[in-house]
Amino acid sequence: MTNPTRGLLLLSPCTSVVSLAAGSDELDCKKGKAAACGFAGRAYIDKGQAGDESAYALARPLLEKGCKGNDGASCDDLGWLYDDGLGMDVDKKNAEHFYSKACDSKFARGCTNAAALYLRGEGVAKDEKKALKLFTRACDGGSLTGCRDLGLMYIDGTGTPKDLKKARELFHKGCDGNNAGSCFDLGVMYANGEGGPVDEKKAAQAYDLGCDGNSWSSCRNLALLYLDGKGVKKDFGEARTLLEKGCEGKHGASCYDLAVMHQNGEGTPKDKDMAKKFFKVSCELKYENACKYAK
């Protein structure tokens, strides 16, 4: 069984504002408080994400006002509306404009989002070196996602010479800040001896932190270590629990390995029906290796 392939983590902004707060924030926004405009706008975005798409149109003018007042979070959320076409047509050029304005306002997430557009060449000419600089600004400004994406660029040699040691340091920084994706990548580097010596015990610790943060790939890789007794004491029961968690999170490879455990009677009695069930789930989650066993 092989480790899942790494992929660039693109930011999905978190939502936490309670919509009931929008009213008082809108009043403060009218008084010229830029941050309040951002809070009110984000509350409407939350409402839109919950299914009321008409709320996006209410978010936009509030975010525009907040952004004009140099509130970086407002600029970043306004960029998100343009980037994903929330309540409007997709406009990557305007998305870059507002993400960059957020970045210039020292809002680190804006730097991360602008970097992703430059890396993909969306709305702007593709520019890997500029993406590298923006991810660096993001990481230095406290965006742990920016640190992780910067680490991936150093691993692949994108916009910069490959530097596995630097990548490991960046993933350490992200993982120390509880960025689950960084913990996964750090675990992979320890397991494979990339950027430093192999250390299966530290790989297990990193995967454990990633799994706690709902990185299903981390749960799966930690389960494989328990199956093989690498870095941890061999424990089929713990491996099965981790794979069940990953499968519940709709991670196809975890469902596949869980099916194999049921098929082979590892940590559980042999059960061909349960094995077939999880092979089928894995196949439905587009894990192709499972499909031939799901029939």
UniProtKB/TrEMBL annotation:
Highest taxon listed in the record's lineage: Bacteria
N-terminal signal peptide: none
Record's keyword terms, sorted: Repeat
Family in the record: Belongs to the hcp beta-lactamase family.
Designated name of the protein: Beta-lactamase
